[in-house]
From TrEMBL:
SUPFAM superfamilies: Calcium ATPase, transduction domain A, Calcium ATPase, transmembrane domain M, HAD-like, Metal cation-transporting ATPase, ATP-binding domain N. It comes from Methanosarcina mazei (strain ATCC BAA-159 / DSM 3647 / Goe1 / Go1 / JCM 11833 / OCM 88). Keywords: ATP-binding, Cell membrane, Hydrolase, Magnesium, Membrane, Nucleotide-binding, Phosphoprotein, Translocase, Transmembrane, Transmembrane helix. Residues 1-74 form the Cation-transporting P-type ATPase N-terminal domain. This is Cation-transporting ATPase. GO terms for cellular component: plasma membrane. It is a multi-pass membrane protein. The chain crosses the membrane at residues 49-72, 78-97, 241-262, 268-293, 707-729, 735-756, 783-803, 809-829, 849-868, 880-900.
Length: 910
């Protein structure tokens, strides 16, 4: 793998040299290895994508019903059924038109051009023409075009967060590493798709195209099949149930009618009428519209759903596997603690905004503020700003940094005390420097400081150093204490090292600082020319203090995780960062609790599959993991029956995002790959938005279940009314066109209005639903039967009264027809909530339902009183007394359900 070989061995194996390949050799290798690009998977055609919207069993049943209706001459029935099916397909197709583009978009992250050395000459070529053995030059800002082994480096740091998840750029080296070094720690390698954050270097390409780590991820992503959502499974289960029930009903009526002496053809027609009554023609379209409206609401809450059925999956989620960097944290290194003059100062403010305070202690309200004029703090921050190559600048959308994030954190801390780096650089110019290296672990600059206030730095030439605490302390013989430069004692060194350990235990990255005013004769020219050795320039230093920095958690995440916990959702952190850092952040956020486990990638590798599955439910933090590990965690949780949501922003997250039940990508910092592999994108990169999305997902499913139960009551009522009337009185109380009209207007506008019902109180204090129970449970069937039987009793009362009154068949059918419609309008208010009274919710809090019911009432009145509609629907006008009976009976649908809710709420309170 080249990382464990010295440079000469790498050159020998790749058959190249520091002068690079010849054009002829490069051409041959291009034919052998192929272009440096990622292979695209076969795209799904627009036609196939459209057809995929009609795979549901319920859709198939509806198509069969339309064909049967057409064969029987019921052209209007067939047309309406096919229209609703087509509408559902169009809505789903439009939402999913931009489907899977993961591997195609991986290409956009590769560098379009690269600087390569061939035959000893530098030249720029398209990165697609790079081959193994090519020598490439790297400098700050470059996107690395292929996997390569470092052969030269000058303070080279590479941002590998998109591949490994680590927030701090990796310092690169040229030395060979021990065999078995983990991929994240192979600091003599660079990888395609990552970026140079600082410095420059030279590397020999070891792998291109699909052979790179990036390419292997693309291959892994292409082998993962996205599982069907719980809603898709539930709708299919419901479709099978409806289909079976319809066949039984048709067969039963036909056989029984023939047995009682009715003509077989009449019995078949009545059986079809019952089938039309049983099948919810509008359900697919209404569910699709309901999901679409949910998608619109979720966009307002910063969550963009890519596939409609995925909206509901969030409501069933019981585990969220979250990436740390940029998701739970801000992905902005921030100085949080400063140690000067034997005291710890707390630095407020987050991110790159230079607005903050310096406080003593841990309580902002009570702690005294330390002035930026404090000489000890001033000297340390001056060192941090001058011994630094990063910059802070402001744009319209906020403060930005240029350079290494760790150095930028120091510039921000200095700015909080009023030090602007650009002004400092101008006022105290850098005369020379000794750059940071992985061997020295420090950086030193030499600045002209002839007008700094105070006596401490009263010298024309001052050296400022920053670096690893043990290195800086090792070069110090003095300490800046009590406003004076004093001799550094052994005891003071031990005290400082204890502070270093304490800060490190808080998962802070510790950096030490020192300075040295030089006497005459110690000029920068002598240092840079070598007349004064570097060792002498960096000795006899004055220790000034420490900083502790980290990538802090997002402020709103703690509350979001508590809400998840209340909602029965476990949060798991999965990160490429170190175990100590990950555990500290997880503990602070409330993810890692007592008795929870933390596993590293190497520890995970050592576990057998069965052993890991037994342990996976107790693990809250995974650290130093790679893409295959993340995928393994997601799959293990799914095997345990969990509905898993996975959040992430990097290329390394893409396979797990696609494998999870709900992949959630970051919209701002997320790579195109992670977005296309996901089911949902957070447009504000805010973990807290997931909680809002979960609530919306739960509410969407609650609303879907409620309006399906509402429709079920209607269909059960219709079936029972027709069945009992046929068997008891040998008449058809509803014509087929009237049944279709009832289905159309009761399954249309009211369910769509119910789909915008706001969340119930306490929705996020309920446990996630069991996905095995499906859309319709015993509770919904009981409610459907109860109200369906009540509507049947209402209709039978009207039927008997009409017969006794000697009404014509048209009048009888009109009354039963109108009663069912109005009873279902009252019933619509029942299903705003299956728990709470409509009066406690507020009659007018869902105005859409008011408009839907009023529209339906107007349409029904038109069917009864408009002449040409009377002819089409075989209706006759009704008198005021007849309307009084209909409304009195229909209102019992609402009254009875209110009584049931009151009784059930009393039991819950007990």
């Amino acid at each position: 793998m080249y990382y464990d070989q010295d440079i000469s061995s790498v050159f020998g194996e790749l058959r190249t040299s520091v002068k690079g390949l010849s054009p002829e050799d490069a051409e041959k290798r291009l034919e052998e290895y192929g272009k440096n690009e990622l292979k695209e998977k076969e795209k799904v055609s627009v036609f196939r994508l459209f057809l995929s919207q009609f795979k549901s069993i319920l859709i198939l049943i509806l198509v069969i019903a339309a064909i049967v209706s057409a064969l029987l001459g019921e052209a209007i029935d067939a047309a309406v059924i096919l229209f609703t099916v087509f509408l559902a397909g169009i809505l789903g197709f439009v939402q999913e038109y931009r489907a899977e583009k993961a591997i195609e978009l991986l290409k956009s992250l590769t560098s379009p051009e690269a600087t390569v050395v061939r035959n000893g000459s530098e030249k720029k070529i398209p990165s697609t023409y790079l081959v193994p053995g090519d020598i490439i030059l790297l400098q700050t800002g470059d996107r690395i075009p292929a996997d390569a082994r470092i052969i030269e480096e000058f303070n080279l740091k590479v941002d590998e967060s998109s591949l490994t998840g680590e927030s701090v750029p990796a310092q690169k080296v040229t030395d060979a590493l021990p065999a078995g070094t983990s991929e994240a720690d192979r600091n003599n390698m660079v990888y395609a798709g990552t970026a140079v954050a600082y410095g420059r270097g030279k590397a020999v390409i070891t792998a291109t195209g699909m052979k790179t780590s990036f390419g292997e991820l693309a291959g892994l992503l292409g082998t993962i099949e996205r599982s069907r959502t719980p809603l898709q499974e539930s709708l299919d289960k419901f479709g099978r149930w409806i289909g079976g029930a319809t066949i039984v009903i048709v067969a039963f009526v036909a056989v029984l009618g023939v047995f009682l002496g009715f003509p077989p053809l009449d019995m078949f027609l009545w059986g079809v009428a019952l089938a039309v009554a049983a099948i919810p023609e509008a359900l697919p379209a209404v569910v699709t519209v309901g999901l679409g409206l949910g998608v619109r609401r979720m966009v307002k809450r910063h969550a963009l759903v890519r596939k409609l059925p995925s909206v509901e999956t969030l409501g069933a989620t019981n585990v969220i596997c979250s990436d740390k960097t940029g998701t739970l944290t801000q992905n902005k290194m921030t100085v949080e603690r400063i140690y000067v003059d034997r005291q710890i100062l707390r630095v407020t403010g987050g991110g790159y905004d230079p607005d903050g305070k310096f406080l003593k202690g841990d309580s902002e309200k009570e702690d005294p503020e330390v002035s930026g004029d404090d000489i000890h703090l001033r000297v340390l921050l001056l060192s941090a700003a001058l011994c630094n190559d990063s910059n802070l600048y402001k744009e319209e959308d906020g403060w930005k940094i240029r350079g290494d994030p760790t150095e930028a954190a120091l510039v921000v801390a200095a700015a909080k005390a009023g030090f602007e780096k650009s002004e400092l650089d101008s006022k105290y110019p850098r005369l020379a420097e000794i750059p940071f290296s992985s061997e020295s672990k420090r950086m030193t600059t030499f600045n002209k400081l002839d007008d700094f206030p105070g006596d401490v730095l009263d010298s024309e030439l001052v050296a400022f150093s920053k670096g690893a605490p043990e290195v800086i302390l090792g070069s110090c013989t003095k300490i800046f204490l009590d406003g004076e430069i004093k001799t550094l004692t052994h005891g003071q060194k031990q005290e400082i090292l204890e502070e270093v350990k304490e800060l490190a235990d808080q998962a802070l990255r510790v950096m030490a600082f020192s300075f040295r005013p030089f006497e005459e004769g110690f000029s920068p020219e002598k240092i840079s020319s070598g007349k004064i050795p570097v060792e002498r320039a960096e000795e006899d230093m004055v220790f000034s203090g420490l900083t502790g920095m980290r990538d802090p958690p997002r402020e709103e995440v703690k509350a979001a995780i508590r809400t998840c916990e209340d909602a029965g959702i476990k949060t798991v952190m999965i990160t490429g960062d170190h175990k100590v850092t990950a555990a500290a952040i997880a503990r602070e956020l409330g993810i890692l609790k007592e008795n929870d486990l933390t596993l590293t990638g190497s520890e995970l590798d050592s576990l057998e599959e069965k052993e890991f599955e037994d342990r996976v439910e107790r693990v809250s933090v995974y650290a130093r993991v790679y893409p295959a590990h993340k995928l393994r965690v997601v799959e293990a949780l799914k095997k345990k029956g969990y509905v898993v949501a996975m959040t992430g922003d990097g290329v390394n997250d893409a396979p797990a995002l696609k494998a999870a039940d709900m992949g959630i990508a970051m919209g701002i910092t997320g790579t195109d790959v992670s977005k296309e592999a996901s089911s949902m994108i957070l447009t504000d990169d805010n973990f807290a938005s997931i909680v809002s999305a979960v609530e919306e997902g739960r509410n969407i499913f609650k609303n879907i279940r409620n309006f399906i139960t509402y429709g079920l009551t209607c269909h059960i009522g219709e079936v029972l009314i027709v069945l009992i009337a046929i068997l008891g009185w040998q008449i058809l109380p509803l014509m087929a066109v009237q049944i279709l009209w009832i289905n159309l207007i009761t399954d249309g506008l009211p369910p769509m209005a119910l789909s915008v019902e706001p969340p119930d109180r306490g929705l996020m204090r309920q446990k996630p639903r069991n996905v095995e129970e499906g859309l319709i449970t015993r509770r919904e069937i009981t409610a459907g039967l109860g109200i369906g039987i009540l509507v049947t009793l209402q209709a039978l009362i009207v039927l008997v009264w009409s017969l006794e009154s000697g009404f014509s068949l048209s009048k009888l059918q009109t009354m039963v027809f109108t009663l069912v419609v109005f009873s279902e309008m009252f019933n619509a208010f029942n299903w705003r909530s299956d728990r709470y009274s409509v009066f406690s919710l507020g009659l007018f809090t869902n105005k859409a339902l008011i408009y839907a019911v009023l529209t339906t009432v107007v349409l029904q009145l038109m069917v009864i009183y408009v002449p040409f509609l009377q002819l089409a629907f075989s209706t006759v006008p009704l008198s005021l007394p007849e309307w009084g009976i209909i409304l009195a009976l229909a209102s019992t649908t609402l009254i009875s359900m209110e009584i049931v809710k009151h009784i059930n709420n009393g039991k819950r309170a007990d």
